[in-house]
Specification:
There is one protein chain. The chain is an alpha+beta fold. Helices cover 29% and strands 30% of the residues. The chain is built from three helices and seven strands, in the order H-H-H-E-E-E-E-E-E-E. The strands form two sheets. Strands 4-3-6-7 form a four-stranded antiparallel β-sheet. The protein has a three-stranded antiparallel β-sheet with strand order 1-2-5, with no helix packed on it. A hairpin with an 8-residue loop joins strand 3 and strand 4. The N and C termini lie far apart (66 Å).
Length: 148
Amino acid sequence: MKWNWGTGIVIGMLSFMSFILYLVITMSTDKNYSHDLVTDDYYAKEMVYQNEINAETNTNNLKEKIISKRTDAGWLITFPKELKYQDINGSIFLYRPSNQKLDFESKINLSSNELLIPNTNLIDGRWNIIIDWTYEGESYMYKEEIMY
């Protein structure tokens, strides 16, 4: 059989198409390449997004800001002194973008205006902190990305 330009182009195109088809099938069937959405209930969370915006606005309107910093004992979050810590009710959610298994949530139980997340719960790397609380009937939310 004689090779010419047309035969070479057809063989090249078929080889490329086969390679792309192989990649598509491999990526869609192999569990190693399976990547989930950022959160499981993405669309349901989108529907309540306006409530989050209102809660964040309430937090930003406070006279004092929330202070968040790393200490030797863990991550320390200081609530504004204008709020009575006994009346703060809510939860804190720590989200690890690189590993869903490290995510955890706990209720806010304050004995002062400071909340400590101990070193035992955190490993080095990036974390997203979401504090969702109510105070005197108003909703508040604080979000921060930290490097621990």
